[in-house]
Write a structure and sequence with these properties.
Layout: E1 4-8, H1 11-20, E2 24-26, H2 33-38, E3 46-50, E4 58-59, E5 64-68, H3 73-78, H4 86-90, H5 95-100, H6 103-107, H7 115-122, E6 126-131, E7 134-139, H8 140-146, E8 155-162, E9 169-175, E10 183-190, E11 193-194, E12 197-198, E13 202-206, E14 213-214, H9 216-222, H10 229-238, H11 253-275
Parallel strand pairs: 1-3, 2-3
Antiparallel strand pairs: 4-5, 5-8, 6-7, 6-8, 9-10, 10-13, 11-12, 13-14
Helix pairs in contact: 9-10, 10-11
Length: about 280
């Protein structure tokens, strides 16, 4: 069956088609969707392109950052106001992939992809989702919990988060093929400190479950504590307990669980070293 292509300038029209046609899929950069079709996924029969300018809006001048879902990884990597996110964007694919891959598409990427979603989870982002009935705002963790059950025709339009303090946001990706390989695992963390005490940290893992997940146990081990080698070891010691990584062509689930503490320790010790 030949593929159809439909382009819309209004979100409501695109959402209506996506809601009515089970074979229609929103086409962002196409880095994963087109691959699925090329590999023989016959459930997809229509590409839907949405050309709404608000999907490309980038507001990063103030304390609140708002990014349209159609913004690409390459744009993020070169945006001076988003230097803290450049390592995340640059870890996603090669130059051609980054030029096409969008924020919205990355949020729906299956494990072991979706590194930008891991970063948004650690940043405490809010995900804006629109359909023909209006707009919903999801905290990032709630979005990942509901992602596969969103109403038909739902479209992610933007992500919003507070700009992190200098040095508070951390990101680390482990892959077998550098610089563009899929993740063995990825880690993003917000480690805010007040008078040396860690305050409401957020730690997120990628490739350690079906979607990006928060490491609540590790966060609780650090919250309200000074960041020291001892508090880091407590967090590291329980980090893998809430994970359920898959075994795939990149790595086994056992391997991911085994190396996760090593890399989380490295990330947190780097934060400690910079403070010292």
């Amino acid at each position: 069956m030949p593929l159809a292509y439909q382009s819309f300038s209004e979100l409501s029209a695109a959402a209506a088609l996506l809601g009515a046609d089970s074979g229609a899929r929103l086409l962002g950069g196409g880095t994963l969707l087109v691959r699925r079709v090329n590999e023989g996924d016959t459930s997809i029969d229509t590409y839907v392109r949405l050309r709404d300018p608000k999907l490309l809006l980038l507001d990063a001048a103030g304390e609140t950052v708002r990014l349209g879902a159609g913004i690409t990884m390459s744009r993020i990597a070169r945006e001076p106001a988003l230097t803290f996110l450049a390592p995340v964007a640059k870890a996603i694919g090669g130059p051609a992939v980054r030029a096409a891959a969008t924020i919205g598409g990355n949020l729906f990427a299956p494990s072991p992809y979706g590194d930008f979603g891991v970063a948004l989870l650690a940043l405490g982002a809010t995900i804006s989702v629109e359909n023909t009935r209006g707009t919903s705002e999801f905290p990032a963790e709630a979005f990942f919990d509901a992602r596969d059950d969103l109403d038909a025709g739902s479209i992610v339009t933007a992500v919003t988060f507070r700009r992190p303090a200098n040095g508070a946001f951390r990101f680390l990706k482990v892959s077998r093929v550098r610089p563009k390989g899929a993740a063995v695992l990825s880690i993003a963390a917000m480690v805010n400190r007040t008078n040396g005490i860690v305050v409401e940290p957020r730690i997120a893992f990628g490739a350690m479950a079906k979607t990006a997940i928060r490491a609540h146990g590790a966060e609780n081990a650090l919250n309200g504590m000074a960041l020291t080698a001892e508090s880091i070891e407590r967090a590291v010691g329980i980090a893998a307990e809430e994970t359920s990584p898959a075994t795939d062509a990149i790595a086994s689930g056992w391997y991911r669980k085994t190396v996760l503490p090593v890399h989380l320790r490295r990330l947190l010790l780097d934060a400690l070293a910079e403070e010292v």
